[in-house]
Amino acid sequence: MTKPGAKAAASPRERLLAATMDHVTRHGIGELTLRQLAKALGTSHRMLVYHFGSKEGLLTEVVRRSEAEQRAFTAQLMADTGTPPIEQARRLWSQLADNEMWPRERLFFEVYAQALRGRPHTRALLDEIVDAWLEPLVAINRRNGMARDDARAAARLSLAVTRGLLLDLLATQDRKGVDAAMEHFLTSYAPLAGTGAKKQKRRSRP
Amino acid sequence: MTKPGAKAAASPRERLLAATMDHVTRHGIGELTLRQLAKALGTSHRMLVYHFGSKEGLLTEVVRRSEAEQRAFTAQLMADTGTPPIEQARRLWSQLADNEMWPRERLFFEVYAQALRGRPHTRALLDEIVDAWLEPLVAINRRNGMARDDARAAARLSLAVTRGLLLDLLATQDRKGVDAAMEHFLTSYAPLAGTGAKKQKRRSRP
DNA sequence: CGGCGTATGTACCATATGGTACATGTACCG
DNA sequence: CGGTACATGTACCATATGGTACATACGCCG
Q: Which of the listed residues A106, B79, B128, B197 has the most CB atoms within 10 Å of its CB?
């Protein structure tokens, strides 16, 4: 049992996984082969199979790790309770839309597509790929006085807007245009939440 | 030169392509191999290479065909000028969200992810994967009296909402929940367009 | 020291893949 | 009839893949 005095370097398995995450984020997960990966990491595919059991095992671990990062991100979302919601949304968006996040998002949508096909290594993900994000958003909306159902619908909408605009951004790389659309959403729509306007949807003509 | 009196059956290439579209819609395009496909179509991978030059050639053709279908769909959107925009949006959504469309949308997002990775057979798609849909939406918004910039931002937003909610739907299969979010969007936000409200975003506090 | 668990390197295997060579069929057109 | 273009079937090839067998290093603990 490895318990070296200084934790200078993590376990080899951990190092391999971290390097794999990096490689996969950059080059995608769909075309991944053990040999190419191993060569890029300066090891042999033999070691990957040794430490992860199989290619499937590796992929499963990669997805698990991605989920963990995502959870950390949403947790950070939850932690910030002081900021007004629209400003909070702007910050969140500017984090997500940043160039440096693009590779991660490309990977996210790639894995998302695989999950929609039921690929085995994504089984754990499909259950929470929406809900894990929904919960904190619902909480924020409720905290701002929205009724339960509205809070949920609005959260779902916000999530959809965010992912939809990210898809747009990654394809067009038009940061300005996408920012404008998000701003359009935030300034025209979201304010309704803060003003305590409840269930006005019945009144078809104001 | 094949010009049979009755066009009973299209060219073999065309039949193969149609069958491939069907197969790929059902089983995905990421894991596709010529041999498996050929077996499913009751032919040999030899013929696929013969008629499409290579696997890449086949994939390119599949993507091209998908684009064509998409264009037909948006054209239908453009044609309908009489319906009020919100009702038009509801119809569009109910078409897209229908169970029968799910396989197509799964394929769409799968190909989208590949396009984001720069896969060669998707090159033609990346340019228009947003714009092709944006144009008709912008036109509708303009027709309803929105200023150029607002029309564009709103169109972009609508597209993002639609795609984001489709992603949600495909993952959660929660049609009710997603419908509620869309309705939330349509009833709370879109009405702003019809009322001739222009450029109100400057007024930071009403 | 000696054994033992973790880790790694080398070589190999069965299988699947995309693509090709060659032969064969089939239908139309002169 | 005979040829010619399109179409198809059979067999093959080089390559790449995931996985495994075997040998071997390294470091710790008794």
A: A106
